[in-house]
Structures are given as structure tokens and as C-alpha cells.
């Protein structure tokens, strides 16, 4: 064997070994393509390009070999020797122009290589105009080989190599070697494609389980941000939620389940759904967490004979639930093993609310204390998970201080999106080891002329007076068109409160995008909606209230209960 042949054999053997060791380690399509071209240049070729089907880049399947589907390619990677000029060639990231079907390139769709020992043949048989040809063929090239990225019955793309400085033209042995190397890369590309598809599906699942990032209501303007841990699937169990409540109030929720991946996402979905359902009952924050705690114990019992990862994800969960009232301008919060919220009041330094955290969900038998605090109009409330302030090997107190400093440096009147991104940039490490969620809320408050409230004694003769009070205030608010229905609602609810609960009876109207009518009494008896029979003398009042208003409901308070109704206000 001559020296040149031995050198060529060593280069081919080294290329084959390097491909076996280096290709397929990444689950990123672009990285696999870049690794391939770096292996081929400059020892095997002067220029190498990888063009991949656009469907593959987003995780979908391209056309099968036995179909005539249209394969649209996009240049994904390219490498050339320093002596090669590639200015006129198609750049990385650009789509390849369509090429007419020709006998020269047809073998590629059958999974076979195309060897062109003389580029003049390519000029003659490719069937494209000279301007398009310069996008494919480098200046000065004398030979080329094109090999399809073929794996599991799919044409994923094409690899093309060119020689211009290397004196020898490509031969059959070179084509066979390139086919072997590219076949390894094709499996790596297909594995990366499958991973991309699964990753997109899982991320889409989690994103669909979270609320809209930005919301604006009468109570608050909110923005939520979620950042998965680095590595893995990039999904986990941190979540946030903003739940509108009756009487223009709003609930803020932030929670964290143990672990990452689909188990954590599934546990998060269960807990978020449970919190939403319980919030619809308008429970006290501490009572709501008690019900969630009971639910977690039940779910853990179901999982006891199944996957221990699912059980751990549910049992280790933490949650914070807070309710803000724009009328009283107060917030009530309860926590289950969760960090406290931060409050940045206008003109003041940010502080962390001194909540009394209960145990994580699933412990059972322990109360969840409710902490109440004032929230001035324009205050910034920050609800977050421990992944934002706690890092592997770090001190959570240091993380809390970083968060406090970031809030202190934020413009309280600025965009919540910019503030939340600034907090993430300054508090989170570059590669976080845990998921992190942040919910920012800028509080609103209703002015005094949007609220009217009265207290009535337990005297049925005062029902007519209650109707007069309501119609007078609606006239002041220029809402006379709502007087008839509101009079009926007030008459029915006040009469029932006096007759069955005694006094004092509270009556309140709240005007914003809707008209809220509330009647409070000292009884803890839940009203029941029923359909009266023809022989019944009563029982129709609450049914009429439900039919004439958009929504109605009842919530219990420390002193009794409040029945509320909502009517839409037509704005010109």
C-alpha cells in the first residue's frame, strides 16, 4: 500500500471513528448538523452543508420514501476550509429554492447517494438557471457528493460535500464512507426530532394549564412569568393563577409541586383545578387550603399503589392563596409551606408580609392561619415560588434579599412585564436548578363614589325604604335602566334576611363594569334555589333573582353570610 493510500485510509478510518463517537450525543437538530459538518471539513471536504426539512426542525415528520410529498429544505449548518469563498452560497437559516425533478438528483429520494466526479455534469443536468446555480455550487469546486439524511424510512434532509482545494475527486469509496457517516448522523437527527416533538407537546401542555400571562380587572393588573429549570424537559410543577371573585375581588394563587417533568405537571394541573373549584365557593383562604390539604391526602392515597413519583409530587406541594378586595383595600393570605408575598407600597421600601406558614399540603391535621394586610392603591404585590429565591447550595435568605433589592430598584409605575423580566434577570441564576414562577399584581381601588352601603334594622317596614335608597343611588349614578331589577332583588333579599335571619341587615351597591348588589345578615344558613309549585305561596323570590341577574351567589363571613348579585352595565 502506497503512502498516499495509507494516508487516505487513515483519514477515512479516523472520520468513521470520530463520527461514531461524536455524532448523536446531542438532542438538538442544529447541533447534530453542526457536529457533522465540523467532522467533514477540512480533511474530507473543502465545503460541507446540511439542509434539513423544515418539518424536522419543528419536530414533525417529513415525507416518507414511498410518497411524493413536497420536501422543503432549509440550510441548517455549513463549514468550509479557510481558503474557500462561500459568499454567494446559500446562508445558514435560508430556505433552499425549489429544484426541478431530474434523473441526477432522483436517487436521493430513494435513500441513495449522488456522486458527481465532474461539476460540469451538475451544471448540465441540474436544470436550474445560472443565478440559482451559484447558490448551490461553490466557485472552483471540481467534484461533490450528496447523501440523504435517511432514518427509519424518512428523508430528513441532505448532506452535500464539495472539493476544490483537495486535488483528488470524490470516488465511490468516498461516497460509501460519507453514506456510513451520514447514516449515523441521520439517526441522531431523527432522535433529536422526536425529542423536539415530545418537548413541544409537553411545554404546550403546561402552557395550556397556566392562565394568560397578563390580566387586568377592577381589582388589579397582573402579569405572571414561569421559568423552567435548566436541563430535562423544561417543564415542572410551579404555577400561578388569578381568579376573579364576586364583588369585584380577586384571588392570587402561586404553588409548587415536587419534581419536574410530566408527573409534576400532572400534579400541578390537579391542584390548580382543585383551587379554582374551591375558589368558586368563595371560601376563606385558610379554609380553602384546608380543603386542598384534604384533597391531597386523598390523591396520595390513590397513588399509594401506583407510581411513587406521582405520590411525592402531590404530597410535597406548597401553595399560597390570597384574596384582595378593592373596596376595603385589604388582602387576606394563607400559606401552606410557601414563601410569603412581598409588598411594594407607593413611596415605601418593599417588605415581606409576615404570614404564618402552615405545613406543606398533605400533612393534615394542622390549621392554616390567615394574615390580613393593607394594600394601598398602586401597590405592587409579588407572589413567587422558592425556585426564584433558593438555589442549590445557596441561602434562601440571600435570595429573598436579592428579590427585595430587585423590587426596590423597580419603577412601580412601569410595565409589569418589564419589572418581572428584570426581577428574573437579577435574581435567577443563569442555569436555574429549579422551576421558578412569579406573579406580580398592581392593585386598584374603587373610589368612594363607586360604593354605597347602608345598615337596616330587622323591621319589614324598612324594605320599602331600602328600595328608595337603592333607586336614589342608581339615579345619581345614571343607571335608572337597572332600577326595576335592582328594586326587585333588594326587596326579595332584604325581606328574606329580616324574616329568617334577623338584623342588622347590611345593604351595599358597588358600581364598576358591573353593578353588584349585596345583602348581608347574621345567619349562617345557606339559601336554596328551588322551583315553587303552583300551590306554594312562596319560594319564587330567589328563583326570580337568579333569572333576572347575570350571576348570584352566597359567601360566608365571620359575622354571618352575604348574598350577592351581578348585573351588566351597558357602557356607551
Task: Give a written overview of the molecule.
The model is unreliable at 534-538 (pLDDT under 50). Strands 6-7-16-15-12-13 form a 6-stranded antiparallel β-sheet, with helices on one face. The protein has a 5-stranded antiparallel β-sheet with strand order 2-1-5-4-3, sandwiched between helices. It is built from 14 helices and 21 strands. It has helices at 3-22, 29-40, 54-57, 119-125, 130-136, 172-209, 261-279, 285-303, 308-315, 396-408, 416-427, 463-476, 483-501, 541-548, and strands at residues 47-53, 73-80, 114-116, 143-151, 154-163, 214-216, 220-227, 239-244, 250-256, 318-325, 330-336, 342-344, 351-352, 371-374, 380-384, 436-443, 451-456, 505-511, 514-521, 551-557, 560-568. The protein is an alpha+beta fold and 572 residues long. Helices cover 35% and strands 24% of the residues. Helix 6 runs parallel beside helix 7 and helix 13 packs antiparallel against helix 14 (541-548).
Amino acid at each position: 500500500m502506497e503512502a498516499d493510500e495509507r494516508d487516505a485510509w487513515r483519514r477515512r478510518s479516523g472520520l468513521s471513528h470520530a463520527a461514531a463517537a461524536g455524532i448523536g450525543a446531542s438532542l438538538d437538530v442544529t447541533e447534530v448538523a453542526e457536529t457533522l459538518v465540523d467532522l467533514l471539513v477540512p480533511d474530507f471536504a473543502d465545503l460541507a452543508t446540511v439542509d434539513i426539512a423544515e418539518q424536522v426542525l419543528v419536530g414533525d415528520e417529513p415525507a416518507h420514501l414511498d410518497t411524493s410529498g413536497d420536501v422543503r429544505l432549509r440550510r441548517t449548518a455549513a463549514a468550509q476550509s479557510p481558503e474557500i469563498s462561500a459568499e454567494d452560497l446559500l446562508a445558514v437559516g435560508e430556505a433552499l429554492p425549489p429544484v426541478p425533478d431530474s434523473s441526477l438528483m432522483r436517487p436521493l429520494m430513494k435513500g441513495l447517494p449522488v456522486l458527481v466526479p465532474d461539476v460540469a455534469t451538475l451544471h448540465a443536468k441540474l436544470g436550474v438557471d445560472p443565478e440559482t446555480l451559484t447558490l448551490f455550487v461553490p466557485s472552483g469546486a471540481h467534484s461533490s457528493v450528496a447523501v440523504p439524511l435517511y432514518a427509519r424510512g424518512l428523508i430528513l434532509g441532505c448532506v452535500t460535500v464539495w472539493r476544490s482545494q483537495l486535488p483528488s475527486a470524490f470516488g465511490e469509496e468516498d461516497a460509501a464512507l460519507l453514506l456510513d457517516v451520514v447514516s449515523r448522523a441521520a439517526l441522531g437527527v431523527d432522535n433529536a426530532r422526536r425529542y423536539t416533538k415530545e418537548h413541544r407537546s409537553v411545554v404546550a401542555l403546561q402552557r395550556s394549564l397556566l392562565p394568560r400571562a397578563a390580566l387586568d380587572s377592577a381589582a388589579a393588573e397582573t402579569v405572571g412569568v414561569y421559568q423552567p429549570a435548566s436541563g430535562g424537559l423544561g417543564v415542572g410543577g410551579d404555577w400561578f393563577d388569578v381568579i376573579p371573585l364576586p364583588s369585584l375581588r380577586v384571588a392570587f394563587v402561586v404553588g409548587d409541586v415536587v419534581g419536574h417533568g410530566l408527573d409534576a405537571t400532572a400534579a400541578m394541573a390537579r391542584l390548580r383545578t382543585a383551587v379554582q373549584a374551591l375558589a368558586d365557593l368563595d371560601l376563606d383562604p385558610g379554609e380553602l387550603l384546608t380543603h386542598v390539604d384534604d384533597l391531597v391526602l386523598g390523591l396520595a392515597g390513590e397513588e399509594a399503589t401506583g407510581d411513587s413519583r406521582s405520590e411525592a409530587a402531590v404530597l410535597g406541594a406548597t401553595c399560597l392563596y390570597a384574596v384582595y378586595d378593592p373596596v376595603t383595600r385589604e388582602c387576606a393570605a394563607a400559606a401552606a409551606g410557601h414563601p410569603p408575598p412581598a409588598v411594594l407600597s407607593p413611596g415605601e421600601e418593599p417588605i415581606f408580609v409576615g404570614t404564618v406558614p402552615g405545613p406543606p399540603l398533605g400533612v393534615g391535621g394542622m390549621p392554616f392561619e390567615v394574615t390580613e394586610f393593607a394594600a394601598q392603591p398602586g401597590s405592587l404585590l409579588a407572589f413567587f415560588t422558592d425556585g426564584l429565591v433558593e438555589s442549590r447550595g445557596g441561602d434562601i435568605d440571600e435570595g429573598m434579599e436579592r428579590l427585595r433589592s430587585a423590587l426596590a430598584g423597580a419603577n412601580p409605575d412601569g410595565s409589569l412585564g418589564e419589572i418581572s423580566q428584570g426581577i428574573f434577570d437579577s435574581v435567577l441564576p443563569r442555569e436555574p436548578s429549579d422551576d421558578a414562577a412569579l406573579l406580580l399584581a398592581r392593585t386598584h381601588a374603587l373610589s368612594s363614589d363607586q360604593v354605597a352601603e347602608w345598615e337596616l334594622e330587622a323591621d319589614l317596614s324598612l324594605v320599602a325604604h331600602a328600595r328608595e335608597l337603592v333607586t336614589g343611588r342608581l339615579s345619581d349614578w345614571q343607571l335608572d335602566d337597572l332600577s326595576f331589577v335592582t328594586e326587585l332583588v333588594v326587596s326579595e333579599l332584604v325581606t328574606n334576611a329580616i324574616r329568617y335571619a334577623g338584623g342588622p341587615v347590611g345593604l351595599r351597591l358597588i358600581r364598576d363594569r358591573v353593578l353588584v348588589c349585596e345583602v348581608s345578615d347574621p345567619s349562617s344558613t345557606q339559601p336554596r334555589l328551588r322551583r315553587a309549585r303552583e300551590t306554594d305561596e312562596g319560594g319564587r323570590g330567589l328563583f326570580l333573582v337568579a333569572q333576572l341577574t347575570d350571576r348570584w351567589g352566597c359567601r360566608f363571613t365571620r359575622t354571618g353570610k352575604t348574598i350577592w348579585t351581578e348585573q351588566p352595565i351597558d357602557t356607551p
